[in-house]
Amino acid sequence: MRRRAREAVLRCLYRREFLPLSPEELLEEEDLGNEALFAEELLKGVVERGEEIDRIIDRRAEGWGLDRLALVDRNILRLALYELLHTDTPPEVVIDEAVELAKTYGTEKAPAFINGILDRVWKEEKCEHS
């Protein structure tokens, strides 16, 4: 199940806040079975496009600078924005999965906050490509 891979990537991103490890080193500690390639794609993508993703978060998190977001919430957004903008996962699935991660791991207001940002980015992307 891809949720397990997303949870693993979230753990890796969180650890990466404190340890400057490569995606491969971070994933070594995870037991992903069939989802290893998916998790690797997500983690490498978030790392490679980190600056771009952080700019998107910074622009959309009105009143909240990137540095004011809780670490877990910020990394859920990073993961979801990469998946939303750079994979073929349906946007509804990406948003739903991110909200579920936020309910489980994020702060109290994270589900609504994350849903709002992802929904806005998705709608802006749809408008740009229509």
Task: Explain this structure.
This protein has 130 residues and is mainly α. The model has no long low-confidence stretch (mean pLDDT 92). The longest helix is centred in the C-terminal third of the chain and has 19 residues, at 110-128. It has seven helices and no strands. Helix 1 (2-16) runs parallel beside helix 3, helix 1 crosses helix 5 (71-86) and helix 3 packs across helix 5. The chain has a single domain (2-128), classed as N-utilizing Substance Protein B Homolog, Chain A. The protein has helices at 2-16, 23-27, 36-48, 50-60, 71-86, 91-105, 110-128. Helices cover 72% and strands 0% of the residues. It is globular, with a radius of gyration of 14 Å.
Question: How does the SSE layout of this entry go?
Answer:
Elements: H1 2-16, H2 23-27, H3 36-48, H4 50-60, H5 71-86, H6 91-105, H7 110-128
Helix pairs in contact: 1-3, 1-5, 3-5, 4-5, 5-6, 5-7, 6-7
Protein traits:
N-utilizing Substance Protein B Homolog, Chain A; 130 residues
The tally of strands reads 0
Cα gyration radius (Å) = 14 Å
Task: List the secondary-structure elements in sequence, H or E.
Answer: HHHHHHH
Overall helicity:
over 70%
The CATH topology is given as N-utilizing Substance Protein B Homolog, Chain A
Number of structurally distinct domains: 1
Low-confidence stretches: none
Shape: globular
What is the overall pLDDT average? 92
CATH architecture: Orthogonal Bundle
Strand-pairing-aware structural class: mainly alpha
What's the end-to-end separation, in Å?
32 Å
**In this structure, how is the largest beta sheet organized?**
none
Strand content: under 5%
The CATH C-level class name: Mainly Alpha
Q: In DSSP terms, counting alpha (H) and pi (I) runs of 4 or more, how many helices?
A: 7
CATH superfamily, by name, is NusB-like
